Amino acid sequence: MLLEAALLAVTAQTSLPNIVYILADDLGYGEVGCYGQKKIETPNIDRLAAEGMKFTQHYSGAPVCAPARCVLMTGKDSAHAYVRGNKEMGGWGRYDPEGQLPIPASEVTVAEVLKTKGYATGAFGKWGLGGPGSTGHPCFQGFDKFFGYLCQKDAHNYYPTHLWNNHDVHVTDNWYFDAHQKIKDASEGFDQFIGVDYAPDLIMSEAEKWLQANKD
């Protein structure tokens, strides 16, 4: 696997590099400053690019969420990857089970390869490769720490009733509402879709704490 070969190559260095990989849905490469965008300021990402490595031929492995993540995690192309679509294992209701088709235990992920080189590994945000207790759970796929949405459809709501901290439920101060309901017009107001705990802030806070604890 090319990924493993690349990691083996860097072991010859005196120290292994820290890796911060940001995957953003629906973000074009030209929409951040380090790739030439001028209208929206992205200074932190630009600094990561300036002090690290910038890719110029690096593409999503699939056009939708779960298979794109499966390609990234396993290094397999979409014709050989286990997950090839957004297959739901639960439902869309409040009490329906969470999660999408889990990647099996036999799959080797980038996190598992990194662990063999002595890395601490963390994932923060949206997972979508296996729900609670499944073989695809990030903590069963090489990650020491996970915080965020295990189920990608739950990530359609920025104010969820809960997130996941490894295998534990992190309950928020938000009330439940259906993030997919339609409103007739703006006069109905959007306050009904705004909760107390904004999930991206919670996720970023956990990510920052983990990075500080593992920066060396």
Helical run tally: 5
Mean pLDDT: 90
* Order of strands in the sheet with most strands: 1-2-3-4
> Can you count the beta strands?
4
Q: Helicity level, as a percent range?
A: 10-25%
Helix-strand makeup class: alpha+beta
The rounded Rg comes to 18 Å
The H-and-E topology, N to C, reads as HHHHEEEEH
- Principal-axes geometry comes out as globular
Oligomeric form of this entry? single chain
Biggest pleated sheet:
4 strands, mixed
The first-to-last residue Cα distance is: 27 Å
Q: Give the amount of beta strand, in percent.
A: 5-15%
Indicate the topology.
Elements: H1 2-10, H2 43-51, H3 65-74, H4 110-116, E1 122-126, E2 145-149, E3 162-165, E4 168-171, H5 199-214
Parallel strand pairs: 1-2
Antiparallel strand pairs: 2-3, 3-4
Features:
disordered N terminus; four-stranded mixed sheet; alpha+beta; 216 residues; single chain; 4 strands
Provide structural commentary:
With 216 residues, the chain is of the alpha+beta class. 24% of the residues lie in helices and 8% in strands. It contains five helices and four strands. The protein has helices at 2-10, 43-51, 65-74, 110-116, 199-214, and strands at 122-126, 145-149, 162-165, 168-171. The longest helix is centred in the last third of the chain and has 16 residues, at 199-214. Mean pLDDT is 90; it is low at 1-10.
